[in-house]
């Protein structure tokens, strides 16, 4: 249940309080026995009077007083040894209970300092002589002793002085253990040793019986399944036992004492307890006569009752929680206690307890502040814990520094790092827990592995004799009963002293590494000075009213100082362990027995050699501790502390960067949750009313704290018991930690201002999206190992493209999948690829890597022969395919010529043979990947013939095409026949009845823009995009592996058209994909982009249209549609311009420019309405996807509800995966989606494998037909080219065919400035506002692409930019921008270039 603060994932909606406990003397006990009389031995009466006597003047020790004649070392304890006329003055004291005890001792220099209020100066001896300890000359100030006494009304249970001693440091004397020294020299004379006064404070008690605490009552009565109530809770509530005491009747009522403790479960989880101890009346009839005599309730002689004394017993109420909200618990317990001693009340006490336990939720980011109204006059504020990856604990670094000071804090840091036996003690039990927690927290990331009991009961004190290191805290009254072992380091938090046995070397902070320890000491010294200014003396002994009212006023300052002190220790540990990750040894071979040993996981000798020689002894001690060994294991394997360790690695990197001044590096962000605006109010339980509406009578009042009645509690509400939405089971590997998210945000902010880096940053997040989807994809694939290798090739491809990865999730997920599917060798290759990319794996990734290679089954070492036989088999199969009979090849040719409109008999036989062999071999090798027996069937020749036909149609230039330019209408007439072609030649009403363009123009433009003339004009005109850099297949992959031949058996029945082109409503301009990308911000919660023309922010939209290919597909199905599909795939293989995997997603330019005439020639009658969703930045989409997986689990990515319920995420993922050519199974969800129910009647029973084809369009899917048609559309209308049908209205637009040809001529002649001027002049001549939504750059660019293809985008950009620069001098940049003539920004151009594959125009 307890999580690190950075990863406090609410797997269940956590309950703030688990148990409420009442501890004390059990109610069923009979008359008390005599056991308690021996438990309180060695009780010393407090000091009540002090006196100074001058024996040299004949004064004697007063009656009842004890004279201190010797120092701690046995030397004379004369107070005036340094005076010339030594009067031989001594200090005397008296013990007793007749008056309030003395609380403090001090030395007063008269004239140098004023007398403190409440203090009494001893100016005379009992014989009325001066008690000055100095000579009293005119040049010296008189020196007196002074003391402070407890008030008369607080005579009991008050910290009082129980012993006094004098020490001479020059004689080697030190203050005894648990003694406090007054740092003022008593010897003010000219000679003699310095003399100091020491005293011991303890609880001034008398007449008490001590017993072991028991459980009186609890709520709930039944144990929780996740956390049973420990039996030892009562003795932790009352660690020094239950005391029965007799008090004088005039004793003031005692305030409750607050204490805290920590319980550690077997699995290492911590449970925090908060308790208050108080006194209540105890009946005399439960005491025996002997016990009454011991308590002073009966006279010793005549056994007569003494009536001027009362009998009190100690009791405790406590709450147990997994969260250390000690201040909140203290206020709640104090309210419950005050409620029990007041009254009468309408509601019973149990109602308030159950209301707090069941109605107060745990603070979260959605509700950072919770104000609980306990009553009309009592409230408490519950704030979200500090948002930090550091472990959540009950540590108070402020109290650590207050009670120990800078030097002792550093000395204890050394003691913890070297695993000493530490015994902390104090008279304040709440301070013990806070300081103990700080001791184990200040060595983060190391974790204390030995016994740890911050507040140890007397019953468990035997742990001090354990032969192992420990950190134990006890009440200082423990030393009234026992002496600590000699090998234990005792730390007195009340006197700020560290006590060790004399035969051991004293702990000193100077044993730490010198440079880092000095930096730490300086920081702590400065913070200690700040603490002294902020906190007034005596604030620790705060009154109840202060705790309930004034604490919130100093919350902000205290939290800030708390984090600054913790940051100082964190900075020291970061410097101490810097570079440790370099010496981690990854597992790269099959594991053995010693693989998991620390010596096999960490290069210890290399780490020690990297440290300074003067530090070798300390580092040798450190590396031998259990903490360090556990730390190395946690860094090497998957751990529940991976968030904390990853945060520490970032701190190490920060101090390495600023190694000269590490104190200037901020490592912890301050808590801002307290200043949150959202506050949840929790009202107190409602009081019942009578039937007539009047108030109910107050029936509940208590003489003592009651035994809880189960029937008075309210039952728990369901909302705090049910699992939260975040409880969906999901692998932790895809999740980014808070630290990784913050780091990714910082990188995005940094790169957002750098054009060439911003595009790579977006690209990195896109790949991150695919790797988050990868587990779902691999799970759905039959050949899972092949899918993993595909992901590995994607990683290599990312490295080739220098993608800026925001984090290590891509590598981590693949490593985890390697472990899940038993591929340890591939995991090692992924690690090597990661190091090759210059990325050092963090703790999380490194843990998953070692888990994968350690738990997976490694292949045996004798696999060489099997691999060689497999290679030989593949060679023989390939040879057999090449020796196919000529008869079968001729038969396939004849069948192919019948099935296809165009004969292939003119094709070269060599190409036919090679294509047939290649496809057959591919089918054999990919048999397990889903190719099926189709390749080896009797129709294999038919398939190969159509494959060759498609290849010839798309790739091979015909003799006629060599001597003439490409004409879409000719191709259409050749394939479809004259009637269909004639229909396609019909001129649209927007063509203004202009003649067709010159057939030689495209060829001339190609000659102007392309230096080499020998290329086939058909390929240039058709724009087979085989020359763009990086657009080909993933390097290192065989073509047969890249093609997913499952498409061959599929039917292309659905087509998805997608476009991200969006309209800016403010300036009525269309903004295109790369411009939208450039306008995104680094904020992962911002959906807006910025318009490049008016700088307005708008939400871009992603449009998708699902079309049913209908009759065309059926016609092609009769003519072997799978053969057509394979033909297209073969052409893609030739051009190497698109990526395919998984589903056969056809989005290539070749298909659009060649196969559109033969497949989409008929109008599609069934079209699903346009789907429009927000177009999300990859940063935003990743955040939303991670949130979806966190709430609903990974299974949602393979279910149809993803498309129906989370359409924004679905369509954005499809868009990005298509842009990058990454495989996915997302489009299979279309078959079961509600979007395609309208098309369900089209799908035949055998169409389960229908292929969904995706086309990514550059221009908008829904153009505004009230505007002028774009230039490229007019060109295609004039050319009779097939395209999507739009109901363009009749316009008197000025764009004639002559205008289009002139623009193209200017572009071809490298006179783009003339084309711009022509366009502006033509538009300016038209009356009214020009109805143009596209920028001038976009109009000319699309026109150029429509004529000459995508190859010339980069060349056109250069020419247009040069033309714009040229025109800026004459027309002015502002005027050109006003007319939307500016080119896209460098950021937009780089985004287009980085995503490689240009969209279709």
From TrEMBL:
**Gene3D superfamilies (UniProt xref):** 2.100.10.50, 3.40.50.11500, Tetratricopeptide repeat domain (1.25.40.10)
Pfam families membership: dDENN (PF03455), DENN (PF02141), PPR_2 (PF13041), uDENN (PF03456)
Q: Where are the PPR repeats?
A: 807-841
Q: Which GO terms describe its cellular component?
A: cytoplasmic vesicle
Looking at the record, the residues that make up the UDENN domain are 195-644
Q: Which GO terms describe its molecular function?
A: guanyl-nucleotide exchange factor activity
Segments for region (Disordered): 1019-1038
Q: What is this protein called?
A: DENN domain containing 4B
């Amino acid at each position: 249940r307890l999580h690190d603060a950075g990863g406090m994932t609410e797997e269940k909606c956590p309950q703030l309080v688990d148990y409420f406990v009442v501890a004390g003397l059990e109610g069923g006990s009979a008359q008390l026995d005599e056991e308690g009389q021996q438990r309180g031995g060695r009780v010393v009466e407090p000091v009540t009077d002090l006196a100074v006597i001058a024996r040299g003047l004949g004064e004697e020790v007063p009656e009842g007083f004890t004279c201190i004649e010797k120092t701690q070392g046995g030397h004379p304890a004369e107070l005036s040894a340094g005076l010339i006329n030594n009067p031989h003055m001594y200090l005397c004291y008296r013990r007793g209970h007749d008056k309030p005890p003395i609380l403090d001792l001090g030395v007063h220099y008269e004239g140098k300092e004023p007398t403190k209020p409440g203090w009494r100066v001893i100016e005379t001896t009992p014989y009325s002589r001066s008690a000055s300890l100095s000579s009293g000359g005119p040049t010296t100030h008189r020196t007196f002793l002074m003391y402070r006494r407890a008030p008369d009304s607080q005579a009991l249970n008050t910290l009082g002085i129980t012993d006094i001693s004098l020490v001479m440091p020059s004689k080697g004397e030190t203050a005894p253990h648990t003694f406090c020294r007054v740092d003022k020299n008593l010897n003010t004379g000219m000679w003699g040793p310095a003399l100091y006064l020491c005293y011991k404070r303890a609880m001034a008690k008398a007449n008490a019986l001590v017993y072991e605490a028991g459980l009186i009552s609890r709520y709930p009565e039944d144990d929780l399944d996740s956390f049973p109530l420990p039996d030892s809770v009562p003795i932790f509530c009352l660690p020094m036992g239950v005391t029965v005491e007799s008090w004088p009747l005039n004793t003031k009522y005692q305030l409750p004492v607050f204490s805290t403790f920590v319980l550690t479960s077997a699995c290492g989880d911590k449970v925090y307890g908060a308790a208050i101890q108080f006194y209540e009346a105890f009946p005399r009839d439960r005491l025996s006569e002997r016990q009454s005599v011991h308590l002073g309730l009966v006279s010793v002689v005549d056994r007569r009752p003494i009536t001027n004394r009362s009998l009190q017993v100690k009791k405790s109420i406590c709450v147990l929680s997994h969260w250390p909200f000690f201040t909140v618990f203290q206020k709640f317990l104090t309210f419950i206690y005050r409620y029990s001693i007041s009254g009468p009340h309408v509601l019973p006490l149990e109602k308030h307890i159950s209301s707090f336990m069941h109605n107060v939720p745990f603070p979260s980011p959605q509700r950072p502040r919770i104000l609980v109204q306990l009553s009309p006059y009592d409230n408490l504020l519950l704030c979200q814990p500090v948002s930090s990856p550091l472990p959540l604990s009950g540590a108070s670094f402020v109290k650590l520094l207050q009670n120990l000071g800078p030097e002792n804090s550093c000395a204890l840091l050394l003691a913890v790092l070297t695993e000493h036996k530490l015994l902390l003690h104090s008279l304040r039990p709440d301070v013990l827990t806070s300081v103990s927690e700080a001791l184990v927290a200040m060595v983060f990331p190391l974790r204390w592995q030995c016994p740890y009991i911050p507040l140890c009961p007397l019953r468990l004190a035997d742990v001090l004799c354990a032969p192992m290191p420990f950190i134990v805290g006890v009440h200082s009254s423990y030393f009234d009963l026992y002496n600590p072992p000699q090998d234990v380091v005792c730390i007195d938090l009340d006197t700020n002293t560290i006590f060790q046995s004399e035969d051991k070397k004293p702990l000193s902070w100077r044993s730490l590494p010198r440079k880092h320890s000095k930096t730490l000491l300086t920081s702590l010294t400065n913070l200690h000075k700040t603490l002294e200014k902020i906190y007034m003396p005596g604030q620790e002994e705060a009154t109840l009213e202060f705790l309930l009212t004034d604490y919130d006023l100093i919350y902000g300052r205290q939290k800030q100082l708390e984090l600054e002190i913790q940051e100082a220790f964190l900075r020291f540990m970061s410097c101490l362990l810097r570079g440790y990750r370099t010496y981690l040894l990854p597992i790269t071979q099959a594991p053995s027995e010693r693989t998991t040993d620390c010596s096999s996981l960490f290069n210890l000798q290399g780490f020690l050699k990297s440290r300074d020689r003067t530090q070798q002894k300390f580092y040798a001690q450190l590396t031998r501790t259990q903490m360090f060994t556990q730390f190395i294991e946690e860094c090497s394997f998957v751990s529940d502390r991976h968030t904390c360790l990853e945060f520490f690695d970032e701190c190490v990197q920060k101090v390495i960067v600023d190694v000269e001044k590490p104190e200037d590096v901020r490592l912890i962000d301050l808590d801002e949750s307290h200043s949150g605006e959202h506050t949840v109010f929790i009202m107190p339980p409602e009081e019942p009313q009578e039937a007539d509406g009047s108030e109910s009578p107050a029936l509940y009042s208590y003489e003592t704290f009651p035994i809880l009645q189960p029937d008075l509690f309210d039952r728990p509400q369901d909302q705090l018991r049910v699992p939260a939405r975040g409880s969906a089971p999901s692998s932790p590997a895809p999740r980014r930690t808070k630290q990784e998210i913050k780091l990714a945000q910082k990188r995005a902010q940094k790169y957002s201002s750098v054009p060439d880096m911003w595009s790579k940053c977006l690209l990195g997040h896109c790949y991150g999206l695919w790797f988050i989807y990868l587990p779902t994809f691999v799970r759905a694939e039959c050949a899972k190992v092949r899918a993993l290798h595909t992901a590995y090739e994607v990683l290599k491809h990312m490295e080739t493209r220098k993608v800026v990865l925001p984090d290590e999730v891509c590598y981590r997920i693949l490593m985890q999948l390697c472990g899940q599917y038993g591929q340890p060798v591939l995991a090692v290759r992924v690690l090597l690829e990661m190091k090759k990319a210059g990325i050092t794996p963090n703790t999380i990734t490194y843990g998953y890597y070692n888990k994968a290679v350690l738990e997976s089954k490694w292949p045996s070492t004798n696999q060489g022969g099997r691999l060689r036989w497999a290679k030989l088999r593949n060679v023989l199969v390939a040879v057999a395919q090449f020796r196919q009979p000529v008869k079968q090849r001729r038969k396939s040719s004849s069948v192919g010529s019948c099935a296809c409109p165009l004969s292939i008999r003119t094709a070269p036989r060599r190409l036919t043979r090679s294509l047939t062999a290649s496809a057959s071999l591919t089918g054999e090798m990919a048999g397990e990947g889903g190719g099926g027996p189709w390749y080896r069937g009797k129709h294999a020749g038919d398939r190969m013939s159509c494959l060759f036909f498609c290849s010839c149609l798309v790739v091979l230039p015909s003799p006629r095409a060599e001597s003439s330019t490409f004409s879409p209408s000719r191709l259409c007439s050749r394939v479809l026949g004259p009637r269909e072609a004639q229909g396609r030649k019909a001129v649209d009403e927007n063509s203004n009845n202009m003649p067709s363009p010159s057939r030689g123009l495209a060829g001339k433009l190609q000659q102007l823009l392309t230096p080499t003339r020998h290329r086939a004009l058909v390929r240039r005109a058709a724009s087979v995009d085989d020359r763009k850099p990086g657009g080909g297949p993933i390097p290192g992959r065989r073509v047969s592996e890249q093609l997913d031949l499952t498409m061959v058996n599929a039917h292309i029945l659905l087509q998805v058209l997608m476009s991200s082109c969006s309209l800016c409503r403010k300036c009525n301009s269309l903004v295109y994909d790369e411009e939208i990308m450039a306008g995104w911000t680094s904020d992962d919660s911002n959906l807006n982009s910025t318009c490049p023309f008016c700088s307005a922010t708008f939400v871009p939209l992603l449009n998708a249209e699902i079309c049913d290919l209908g009759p065309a597909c059926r016609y092609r199905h009769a003519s072997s549609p799978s053969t057509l599909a394979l033909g297209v795939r073969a052409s893609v293989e030739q051009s190497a311009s698109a990526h395919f995997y998984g589903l056969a997603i056809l989005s290539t330019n070749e298909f659009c420019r060649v196969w559109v005439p033969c497949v989409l020639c008929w109008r599609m009658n069934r079209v699903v309405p346009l789907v429009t969703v927000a177009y999300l930045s990859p940063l935003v989409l990743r955040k939303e996807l991670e949130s979806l997986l966190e709430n609903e689990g990974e299974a949602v990515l393979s279910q149809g509800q993803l498309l129906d319920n989370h359409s924004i995420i679905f369509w954005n993922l499809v868009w990005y995966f298509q842009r990058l050519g990454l495989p996915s199974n997302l489009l299979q969800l279309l078959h079961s989606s509600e979007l395609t129910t309208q098309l369900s009647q089209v799908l035949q029973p055998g169409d389960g494998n229908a292929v969904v084809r995706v086309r990514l369009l550059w221009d908008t899917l829904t153009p505004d037909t009230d505007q002028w048609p774009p230039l490229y559309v007019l060109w295609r209308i004039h050319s009779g080219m097939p395209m999507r049908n739009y109901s363009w209205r009749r316009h008197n637009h000025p764009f004639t065919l002559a205008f289009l040809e002139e623009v193209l001529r200017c572009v071809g002649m490298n006179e783009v400035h003339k084309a711009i001027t022509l366009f502006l002049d033509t538009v300016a001549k038209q009356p009214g506002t020009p109805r143009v939504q596209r920028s001038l750059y976009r109009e000319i660019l699309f026109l150029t692409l429509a004529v000459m293809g995508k190859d010339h985008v980069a060349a056109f950009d250069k020419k247009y930019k040069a033309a714009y620069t040229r025109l800026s001098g004459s027309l002015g940049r502002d005027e050109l921008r006003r007319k939307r003539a500016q080119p896209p920004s460098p950021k937009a151009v780089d985004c287009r270039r980085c995503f490689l594959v240009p969209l279709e125009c």
